[in-house]
Amino acid sequence: MAGADPVLTDASVRCVLIVTDSTDRDEVVRDLVTRSVPVTRVVVVHQNGAAADELGAALADARVGWRFVVVGAEASVGRIRSRIVDAGAIDAEIVVLSTEEPDVRSMRRRDVFCGHCHVVTGATTAVDGTVDCSGCGSNLTVYYHYSRRHAAFLGFRADAEDLP
């Protein structure tokens, strides 16, 4: 996970907060911690939301000079990154390390933002696949556009071009 090296080896960084989506990533996290120069904190946020309070407390403690490394599956790193940005961090302070190969055509857990009712639906799908929106019930085509703000791919009605 060489993408985090500039953060881990920068002596001017006061603290590195490593956030991961699963204890399955323990080996990766241990490697990041051992390579980290500054003091490091680790928070594990499970899919069911466990440790969300711990992440909230860590973000409340964050100050200038902190950096954030997010490790996990595509869908969860996007949500965690979005939460860190909402807490006031900027892009330059965040490193995202996805444990999945970047393949939009593969079937995997993705969040899809409905362009019609603005609800985010979680589903196992590929980009260009379809998903039923959990908000308005529309059949959505999953588009390549990924919103870092919503941590989701854009979905639009599959029949949008057929409507009068």
From TrEMBL:
<dbReference type="Pfam" id="PF22289">
    <property type="entry name" value="DmmA-like_C"/>
</dbReference>
<dbReference type="InterPro" id="IPR048037">
    <property type="entry name" value="DmmA-like_C"/>
</dbReference>
<protein>
    <recommendedName>
        <fullName>Dimethylamine monooxygenase subunit DmmA-like C-terminal domain-containing protein</fullName>
    </recommendedName>
</protein>
<feature type="domain" description="Dimethylamine monooxygenase subunit DmmA-like C-terminal">
    <location>
        <begin position="112"/>
        <end position="155"/>
    </location>
</feature>
